[in-house]
Amino acid sequence: DTAVSQTPKYLVTQMGNDKSIKCEQNLGHDTMYWYKQDSKKFLKIMFSYNNKELIINETVPNRFSPKSPDKAHLNLHINSLELGDSAVYFCASSHQGKSYEQYFGPGTRLTVT
Amino acid sequence: GQNIDQPTEMTATEGAIVQINCTYQTSGFNGLFWYQQHAGEAPTFLSYNVLDGLEEKGRFSSFLSRSKGYSYLLLKELQMKDSASYLCAVSAYGNNRLAFGKGNQVVVIP
Q: For residues A51 and A96, what is the distance between their CA atoms, to the nearest angstrom?
C-alpha cells in the first residue's frame, strides 16, 4: 500500500564512505525528486527526473549521483561522504504538469560521523 | 531565482484560529502551495493557489495576492494534531521545481 518508499530509513556512516539511498513509487507518476532537509528544516530540491531523464540538477556537489533505472525508481548515490551531508533526504513523486502536488517518501536520516 | 519568507514559530490554543503568512519573490509565478510536515515525518500536500483569492478546504483556507507576493494559510478550530510545520512553496513557469520556504512551526496547546 505504500505510495513512496525509501530505504534505508536511517543511515549512520563514517566520513569518506560511499552510500546509496533507494526510492520507489507505485503511484504511476512520471516525475521523481530528491530533496535535502537540513537541521534548520529547510527543504531544498536536489534533482528531478521525468521518465528516467534528468530535468533538474541544482547546485549539488558531483559526489551526489542520481540514477533512475525506470520511472518508478530513483536512487541516490553519495561518494566520499562529508559531515555536512548529514540531513534528512526525501524522495518525492508527481505527475508531470502537477508538480505542485508531490507525494513524499518517509525520508532517510543520514548521519555522517 | 525565488525568495520565500515565513515567520518561524507560533503557539496557539486548541479551538483557536491561526494565520500563517508567506511572502515570496519569483519570476514567472505559476502557483503557491502549502504543505504540512509533522515532526519526523514527510511533508504532505495541503492546498494550492494559482489565482488571487481564498481557497477553502474544510478547516484550512489559503489566500493569495499575486500583486503583493503574499499568501496566508488559515487554520480554524485548531486541534492538537495540527501541531506541525507548515511549508509554503512557489512554482515558476517552465520547470517542475518547487521552492520551499523554511516553514512555520505551529504548536497547539490545550
A: 9
pLDDT of the residue at B101: 86
Q: Is residue A78 pLDDT above 70, yes or no?
A: yes
Q: B10 to chain A nearest CA, in Å?
A: 16
* A57 neighbors A68 (Cβ within 8 angstroms): no
Cell 484560529 locates to: B17
**CB neighbour burial string for A44-71, b if at least 16 within 10 angstroms, e if fewer:** ebbbbbbeeeeebeeeeeeebebebeeb
Question: B85: which chain A residues are within 8 Å (Cβ-Cβ)?
Answer: 41
From CA B88, how far away is CA B96, in angstroms rounded? 16
Tell me which chain A residues have a C-beta less than 8 angstroms from the C-beta of B106. none
Alpha carbon of A45: minimum distance to chain B alpha carbons (Å): 7
Q: Which of A61-65, A109-113, B5-9, B58-62 has the lowest mean pLDDT?
A: B5-9
Establish how many alpha carbons lie within 13 A of residue B94's alpha carbon, considering only the half-sphere containing its beta carbon: 3
Distance, C-alpha A85 to centroid of its chain: 13
Q: Given an 8 Å threshold on Cβ–Cβ distance, is B45 in contact with A31?
A: no
> pLDDT, tens digit, for every residue of B63-86?
999 999 999 999 999 999 999 999
* Pair B78, B16: CB distance under 8 Å: yes
